[in-house]
Amino acid sequence: MRRVLVSIGAKLRDRSFRGRIMMYAASVGILLLAWEIASLSIEAIKGRAFLPNPVRAIAEMVRLGPLLFKNFWISAWRLVMAILIAFFTGYPLGLLIGHERRLDQLISPMIYILYPIPQVAFILLLFLIFGIGSPVKVTIVAIALFFQLLVSARGAAKQIEEEYVTSVLSAGASRWQVYWHVILPATLPSILTSLRVSVGLGMAFLYIAETTGSFDPRRGGLGPFIKNNMYSGTQAFAGILAMAILGLALYIVIELIERFACRWKYVPRRPS
Amino acid sequence: MIELHDIVVEYGNGARAVRAVDGVSLKVPPGGSLALIGPSGCGKTSLLYAIAGLLKPAVGEVTLEGKPLSGVGSRVALILQNAGLLPWKTVWQNANLSLLLAKEYPKKTATAALEEMGLLEVKDRYPTELSEGMKRRVGIARALATSPTVMLMDEPLASLDTLTKERIQDLFLTLWRKHRFSLILVTHDIEEAAFLGERIAVLSDRPARIKAVVDNPGMGELDYRGQEGFIATVSRLRSALEVGR
After folding, report:
1. DSSP class of B124
2. Are B10 and B20 in contact (CB under 8 A)?
3. Right CATH number for A54-266 from 3.40.190.10, 1.10.3720.10, 3.10.150.10, 2.60.120.10?
4. B13 at the A interface (CB within 8 A)?
5. pLDDT tens across A12-64, in order?
6. For the stretch A159-186, what's the b/e string if a residue is b when 16 or more beta carbons lie within 10 angstroms of its beta carbon?
7. Pairing of β B76-79 and β B150-154
8. Do A163 and B82 touch (CB under 8 A)?
9. Nearest CA in chain A to B50
10. B87 contacts in A (CB within 8 Å)?
């Protein structure tokens, strides 16, 4: 515990870290200011506050506290599960087809056929077959993200410089050692970028999955919460704000994972 | 003794096959050194990869002490162009890679090799933090860590400035004399071949065939570059490379 506190203290004394925190704070401040201006503008033009201002939305968030928190966790759990399922299936399969030519020839045509189909088209069908519980909602989001991550991983694996593969082969690597020592680490930065994109995409799909057809406020989640309060603008915006916080939290987690897993990208480069 | 028996390397199959190496036979005695020199793209690297087992020859075989060579491993090490370092591994991890893949790590480590290269202090750094010369020395440490009997080098000093290049050539020579491994060096640099090759095989344009073999008995001393023997070898190599161009 003491070590953690010392490390936090050292971080806070670090000028560049403090600078970064200030920039984050400034960025959030600008966003809130833009929201306030938009809210005031709409009120001035339409004569009614269709868009609640940030202070009211945040106050509503606090007032709704436990109820909103419960829905937040339901959506967060669904989204995280979907991302994990998509990551641990789409990423390895993408690497395999990106690196194994014959497998690529066999599987890529299937991907080209399936990927462009909007996965939301299957929502009703899945609900009819499997019901409207959380697992189906998670599955819908996972399917959408699976293709996104699969296509990214395949592309990243294809772009690996041949010299890295030759390097480990020349050191006596087996096929699986090539994956472990080259393909996986070389593709990690691009797959984490793709994962960031997937958070936004996943949120959109989750909203659709939580509200389309299966709209049932008793089953919880931020989607039904927002839809249920659509005509009480402030409450809906408290839900939208909660979604933004969920997205931000996931972005930060991915950023931390990247800082740890791709440390080599963050060391100062020696000028050539 | 490492022997190349009538090696043919081809890319592609059937009518589309392109021949990169055409019937090369050579011998390198234990502790000997052979430089392979030829024009860019002539098939030198293909020949070296065939020796390393990274490419399967269409015809012929490579033997080490009479037995077919099955590829790189504890007895054969390969140093690649640009050192072949993995950017996501530290100096320590890169240097120990061959040992790790051979499941000899952590019983055996590259500590001595890194110390010999003067790199122990930077063992926790990543390749992007190193100078080009340091990167090459990490590549050498990785190869030395396995205590190989055969050291293969594929243009290991390409794109270095002259002084760094000469410094590392001196290092290669010192290591070769100290560790007594058989050295096969691929280069397109005439002076490098004359400095490091006891024998120098001059290869033709693609497909690579042996045009001439030049003996270079005077090599082996660090001050060889200024000597008459060196200048004469450079001149003979230049003439051999010019023939048929």
Report:
1. T
2. yes
3. 1.10.3720.10
4. no
5. 667 777 788 888 888 888 988 888 888 888 878 877 777 778 777 787 778 87
6. ebeeebbbbbbbbbbeeebbbebbbbbb
7. parallel
8. yes
9. A170
10. 264
